[in-house]
C-alpha cells in the first residue's frame, strides 16, 4: 500500500494562491485515483484525478479556482489554489485509492485564508 504526505499549506490573504503537494511513496502500479479532501469541521471532497488518464473532478465550490494535477513520473500530485477565500480555510488531506486496498490518507496540511 502507498504512503502519502502533504506539503505546502500556510497562511495567505483573501485572493491569494497556494500550491499543495502530495508525495506518493511505495508501489504505484495499483494506484488508480488520487483525491483532495478538506476538513473544517466536516471532511468534504475537493478534487480528484485519475492517476493514469489524468481525468479530473472538482467540487462545485472550487471549480474555476483550483486545479488538480499529477506528475506520475515523480509520483507527486498537486492542488493549485487560486483566488482563495476565507471559507477555503481548512486542513487539506490527500488520499490514494488502490485496487484491493482501503484509501491511504496523509496527515493533512493547514490552509488558512485571512479576510
Explain what this protein looks like in three dimensions:
The chain is mainly β. The chain is built from no helices and 11 strands. Helix content is 0%, strand content 57%. Strands 2, 4, 5, 6, 9, 10 and 11 form a 7-stranded mixed beta sheet that branches. The protein has strands at 3-7, 10-13, 18-25, 31-39, 43-50, 56-58, 66-71, 76-81, 90-98, 104-105, 109-114. The model has no long low-confidence stretch (mean pLDDT 96).
Proportion of strand residues: over 45%
In whole angstroms, how far apart are the ends?
40 Å
The oligomeric status of these chains comes to: single chain
Taken from the alpha-carbon principal axes, the silhouette is globular
Radius of gyration: 13 Å
Structural class: mainly beta
Topology as H/E string?
Answer: EEEEEEEEEEE
- Residues in helices, as a percent range: under 10%
The major pleated sheet works out as:
7 strands, mixed
